[in-house]
Design brief:
Number of strands: 11
Distance between the termini: 41 Å
Mean pLDDT: 90
CATH superfamily of the largest domain: CobE/GbiG C-terminal domain
Largest sheet: 6 strands, mixed
CATH topology of the largest domain: Nucleotidyltransferase, domain 5
Shape: elongated
CATH architecture of the largest domain: 2-Layer Sandwich
CATH class of the largest domain: Alpha Beta
Length: 256
Amino acid sequence: MMCDGMEQKTGPGIWLVRPESEALAKVLQNQLGGELYRPWLNTVSSQKQQFANAYRNHKHWVMIAASGIAVRFLDGLVQDKRCDPAVVVVDEAGRFAVSLFAGHEGGANHLAYRVANALGAVPVITTATEALKPLVIGIGCRKNVSVDQIAAAIKLALGERQLNQVREIVTIDLKANEPGLLEFCAQHDLPLRILAGVTVAARPWVSLASDWVQQNVGLPGVCEPCALIASPRGNLLVPKLALNGVAVAIVEDKTN
């Protein structure tokens, strides 16, 4: 199938099934931009038909709904993974951001991380490529470290392992906008997962507490707990390794 090249709106479409999701949807819109859809205001057409009419207006969709509703809405609309819009589903409690459709080609996997970071939710990625990447890297760093500093520390921690074995980079919300970290993730097409400080504080696993981090962040450590939270069944493969203002820890998924 050839993509028709129709012009699509910038920013995601954010589809609400019920008015009770309004507050959650506005948080997403404030963080991601895009357009809110309130289908209950149209009493003539069904929600399914309204979604079908709007489906190709956006490259990306966030649906605040049960996954079953999303699947029913998509029935009959899917044509080609190279052209179909990406769909991420969020439960009404804002706990999970599920990459439901067009994970790679459409960008739903990356969108799921953006949505999760905006809401403090867990990104749910089920594509096989990601499932086969066993490593999670936790990062803590001083303010305004460069992308080269980030890269050097990660390279040292990985040793003979390869960057293509890494599923995600994880850090604390205080470091969500660090330019060097964002640039590194963009250069290597790696998703950056952001954890709230209270989440990290609740699971303070560290092999060696840091007085500097405790004084400046209020936590005994960042990189190790971040990596372990992101991979709760994993093993701490590389404990905290610090280099030139960057701390790295690596967790490897258990194979059984």
